[in-house]
Amino acid sequence: MYNIMIVGVGGQGSLLASRILGALYTNRGFDVKVSEVHGMSQRGGSVVTYVRAGENIASPIIAPGDADLILGFEQLEALRWAHYLKPGGSLIYSTQEIKPMPVLTGAMEYPADIPVKLEEYNIKKLAVDALTIATRAGSPKAANVVLLGAASVHSGTDISDWETALRETVPPKFLELNLRAFKAGRECAAD
Amino acid sequence: MEKKMLLGNVAVARGLYEAGCRFVSSYPGTPSTEITEHAAKYDEIYAEWAPNEKVAVESSIGAAIGGARSFSAMKHVGLNVAADPIFTASYTGITAGCVIAVADDMGMHSSQNEQDSRHYARAAKLMMLEPADSRECKEFTKLAFELSEKYDTPVLLRLSTRISHSQSVVSLDSRVDVPLKEYKKDISKYVMMPGMAKKRHVVVEEREKKLREFAETCDLNKIEMNDTKIGIIASGIAYQYAREALGDKASYFKLGLIYPLPVESIKKFAAQVDKLYVIEELDDIFETHLKKHGIKVTGKELFSKIGEYSPNTIREKISGGDVHAATAFDAPPRPPALCPGCPHRGIFYVLSKLRLTVYGDIGCYTLGALSPLNAMDITLCMGASVSGIHGMNMAREPEFAKHSVAVIGDSTFIHSGITGLINIVYNQSPSTVIILDNSITGMTGHQQNPATGLTLKNRPAPMLDLEAMCRACGVARIRVCDPYDLKECESIVKEELSIPEPSVIIARRPCALLKSVKRGEPLAVDEEKCIGCGMCMKIGCPAISLTDKKAHIDSALCVGCELCGKLCPKNCIG
Ligand SMILES: Cc1ncc(C[n+]2csc(CCOP(=O)(O)OP(=O)(O)O)c2C)c(N)n1
Question: To 10 degrees, the CA torsion angle through A126, A96, B365, B110?
């Protein structure tokens, strides 16, 4: 059983990322369930997508304490959901900051030192400057795939399987960009 | 056989295709929308957006009486709008299969209430099926058509957010060609006036009896015997949660047909287990029914009627714990917000500035209620703004109408605002209605509507002329403004409020997320000149923040709408 969560802000491309993961694990012969968010929260709200792969998956959602891997597309969201990880689980997150409305209006503060706060959790962490890396690869929109590239390093899955999943899922027009973003993400996690 | 990962909703659409469905008419609503969007991709299916759910269902019933397998999908509250035809179609029955899908939203991910649509099955005496994954979404859709024809009744298909919006594997079959059935005039069956309807009610009660017998034997329900200390009765996503939480440590009676219930079979199951639980999200419908038949079950004394469950809820309540998560960080919430460049923002800024009472409605623009705009007082259901402002204005002293407006989106106005406007004119109320025409149905993810000039299948259509529509309702004062032009908006709103007559203001500018809308260059703040006054923060744009007394614009988010610049007293945004 492998439980992955993709957390971020509505509009950051978590649907595509979850579908790439869905294709990846389906191709490997697992039973897979992916739970997506559509509607209201997509308007800039906090969004969580679940991907579960294993022998026989019943629930499409993951309970707190049961996630093996969280991909955080934004720092605050990474922190918000970190407690969903198992002890020893992995958090790979983008250092991008998007301030939520209560912070913008001054009613609340954006938590300072998120990397330090994440130390409270018994988890493995990798912070990635996904926005910069994606921009260099061709578009800031590909930050989601940069994180997938980073996640691929210790995924126990061949790079060719990842590329197949990308080819099956990403619209042809954006495939080259996303393959570049994926490689760049992979490299930043390897060193 | 080809296998594919499909969203529950996409699997329902695939089921429509394979079942030989010919006619689909729906109105969008999360979490049901993708069914109709995907049904439209099949050339073999005629599919359309209707102006509202009542029109959609009436059209589908017409198509089904006319001999074509037909379908409508809606969200839970859409069923309220469509309830009238559904209750009587239960009497008339159909010629060819008619399936109506309704998607509940436990946890209110994207809804204004959390009602349980299972009540309707019982109330309208209609069979209701509930799938628990994408495979069943497809299979149950196909079965629903067969049952509809076998028992001469519309059939309800109940979905929920977690089923509709989860993907799992489905194997694909080919389409069966179901030719048009012959339509025969039969007024005793299809003209529902008292003389005929009295006889049809008898038919309905007889059908109910047959359906109860069918429920006992059908293979839509599945019994899974494991450890017999715990027995579980559940359907849909609640079944999956129970399965996840308890695995082989419980035996399951999984309901696929959720109305009518197989009471006798459940009695037998009850006798085989030590303790029987009913796990149903929202209301205690199964529980009450089973208790009425003397079956001892535990349900809502443990489980809430509020919100959605999870495997953990069930672990906690039934097996007493082993929930083992770290503590959550107390993070500032991230509610949804109007997008950067959203045309609704300009109007709400003006309404907020003028401190008006705003009778709101349902759509992206409901987000205008949130801080810092705080420009909405009331939101109830689709269309309620136009009728509501009338009631409020007529109830209060005349002065009140000078400081109150209704706001309603283009799709919502067409859905159910027009009749309210006719009422305003007919009963001569001094009400002002603002139609926020962003040329699309935004909230549900960009569906075409009668005012956009395109159909669901993206073919050109006559564009409903909103000005002409309002004029035809009898409104003499109709104004149009550009919501990016704050000065114009403010003066028009003030003017219309000062005149005690019905008036409509159409604030027109397409949604900033539409592909046809050109994104402007991101703006930047001249930090030298910025005095940190915070005026630009008043519009609640996610792209603007204020740190250390300087405004900052996030270039990844800004679409260059320039609204913030218009508020800047130092002209330092450009
Ligand atoms: C009876 C009913 N049907 C459907 C919905 C789902 N829904 C909420 S808002 C909306 C449409 C909003 O479109 P529009 O009025 O054009 O406003 P926009 O979101 O574009 O600002 C829909 C279909 C609902 N809440 N109630």
Answer: 0
